[in-house]
Design a protein that fits this description.
GO terms for molecular function: asparagine-tRNA ligase activity; ATP binding; nucleic acid binding. With 449 residues, the protein is of the alpha+beta class. The protein has helices at 6-11, 109-113, 123-145, 175-183, 204-214, 251-272, 274-280, 299-307, 324-333, 386-392, 401-408, 421-429; strands at residues 2-3, 18-31, 34-40, 48-53, 65-74, 80-91, 149-150, 156-157, 168-169, 198-199, 216-224, 237-246, 295-298, 339-345, 362-370, 374-381, 414-420. The chain binds 4-amino-1,4-dioxobutan-2-aminium adenosine-5'-monophosphate and magnesium ion.
Amino acid sequence: TQNLRIINIFRSNYVGEKIQIKGWIKASRKMKQHLFLDVNDGSCSKNLQVIATTANASSLTSGSSIIATGVLQHSPKNEFELNSEHIELCGGCNIQDGYPFAPRKVYSTDYVRQYLHFRPRTSHFSSLLRIRDAATRAIHNFFHKEGYLHVHTPILTSNDCEGAGETFAVVPNNQETLQNMVRSRLLPEETYFNSKTFLTVSAQLHLEAVVHGLSKVYTLGPTFRAENSKSRLHLSEFYMLEAECAFINGLDDVLVFIEKLVKNVTTDVLNECEDDLKKSSEGGDNFAWLDKKFVVLTYDGAAAILKDKTKYPGDFVEGASLNKDHEKFLVEYCGGIPTFVINWPKDLKPFYMKECVEDESRVAALDLLVSNVGELVGGSLRENCRNKLEAKLPRDGVELDWYLDLRKFGGTPSGGFGLGFERYLQFILGINNIKDVIPFPRWPHNCKL
Ligand code: 4AD
Ligand code: MG
């Protein structure tokens, strides 16, 4: 007896062979002497039909886990079905006991999100998780082909890379430390062995250290932001894909690379996950942009569009950053094609960005705006002039001499970017709420499970 995952049954021919599968009953129908079970094991979006006798029908409820053994055959509709000789019930599942999902019923994403521990069993969310996995692999394959090295950067750090004051401080959770903290009126962030320690908001500064030895590096890891936002686009913990490249020629190199990355990864996901995309996508499947060149606007060009009342009816203040409405409008204005906004006013962006050669009031920075989410990527050339960098370093007592040293010793022109992985999934799947593209979303007041 071959033990098979259901995806492999659909991939080759096991008809006439005795096989065993292990999975969860999604639905069951009784017809005369027979019980027809739709069984899924998470390996693909398709269910395998398993035929059982009605003898143990009462225990084979929807949601139960089973091991079924029998001969695989063609069904009258010429699909595969398992004519079971034996079914072992692993774990029963009863709505009467409080299981929140009835068979065949479709639930809203808000309802399903209340049960994060059961969510991976829904067909919609298991499809999402397979797409998330495929996208992760596509990213690693792409970077590998491009000659980039994946590195692990720390989660505990002393810097606030973005300088936005959105860090979570790390505090050792023992009574003595906490009492000391209260007694000596220490701030929470001063209690990690007496130095400020945060959960990282970005791996960038550490990647910059590594890139000055390995030339091309990236990381895909968790980042944390204490933004008090419950918006459909913000999480307290999200995955960011960050890359850095040394010996770079200019911002154009970064734009070209990002465009290639987004197109390659999306094409791979479309090729691999056709069925899952149908199940988990919320908004149409408009991938026309895959064949078009991404639009590039300067900040000033974008501002001119937003100030023109014949084009944009809302308000925009010259020199200010773009809000979600502005971002959405610009992408629509550019025909739904992903749109770079480059050369931003210096005071809107973090200290590490390089001034534009032709205009010192601007930095060589980019935001990539896409439909459904707005800002998907943020990046820039890095300031590699030591004096300019030193003048802009944050003066909040954070020790960044090591970062300056990267310019003092063997510095190179370098650049990089960070792409919000959850926002990327929202973008390609048209999913409204970012909490529906990550297995266990964290947002203010929501970290119980
Ligand atoms: O624009 P951000 O803040 O850029 C950086 O952190 C740079 N240090 C990256 C780099 O150059 N290495 O964040 C990058 C992206 C945003 O464009 C957005 O897609 C995503 O991260 N992002 C969030 N995603 C979910 N929830 C949040 N709270 C997010 N904040 C940023
Ligand atoms: Mg940004």
